Amino acid sequence: MKLISLHKNYTKLIAKSAKGDRRAQQQLFELFSPKMMSVCRKYMKSKERAEEVMIGGFFKVFTNLNSFKDQGSFEGWIRRIMVNECISQLRKEKTFEFNDTFVLENSMDHVSHIETEFEVEEIQKLIDNLPQGYRTVFVLYAIEGYKHSEISELLNISESTSKTQVFKARKLLKNAIELQENRQYGTN
């Protein structure tokens, strides 16, 4: 029963926001901005830049609310806008660098699952240190759940480039985690 009333509240807020009601827009922003900041932060290297991109994304959300057809999750719709806004900003900054020279021969099978006791902030720092191309594809694939075919279309790269970027990102992350664990536990 509570879920239904929550959905009705979203519907009312969305309708009011689409008509330009600033109070309703503020409420939607307050409801979704923490999660959307988290989405943007995965792509942008600094909190400040992530916040700028998120604000731009919400501007697009509010100017395009009439295009939301209430088919699927409203949060998912906003999330997609945020991801697209992040990618758009990264393209403008020309920070993408993809390297296809690495040969991928069943290499995904050789990547071990990383089990650590790292805090979320530590992992975010490791992800931040990845080259932008690796980071973007890794986040799209491993965190957002995009398929390589979708990433290929979204970033205008080949599926093999997408797979290579994920493989290289995982390898760099694994090495960085092992290095930190060795420092932490004093092993070599």
Layout of strands and helices, then pairs:
Elements lengths: L1 H17 L3 H22 L3 H17 L10 H19 L27 H9 L3 H12 L4 H8 L3 H27 L3
Helix pairs in contact: 1-2, 2-3, 2-4, 3-4, 6-8, 7-8
3D structure, described in words:
70% of the residues lie in helices and 0% in strands. It is mainly α and 188 residues long. The protein is globular. The relative contact order is 0.10. Mean pLDDT is 81; it is low at 1-6 and 100-117.
**Helix and strand composition category:** mainly alpha
Oligomer: single chain
How far the N terminus sits from the C terminus, by CA atoms, comes to 56 Å
Taken from the alpha-carbon principal axes, the silhouette is globular
Which sheet architecture does the biggest sheet show?
none
Q: Can you tell me the residue ranges where pLDDT is under 50 for at least 5 consecutive residues?
A: 1-6, 100-117
Q: What is the overall number of helices? A: 8
Give a brief rundown of this model:
This protein has 188 residues and is mainly alpha-helical. It has helices spanning 2-18, 22-43, 47-63, 74-92, 120-128, 132-143, 148-155, 159-185. 26% of the residues are buried.
Q: What distinguishing features does this structure have?
A:
8 helices; 188 residues; globular; mainly alpha
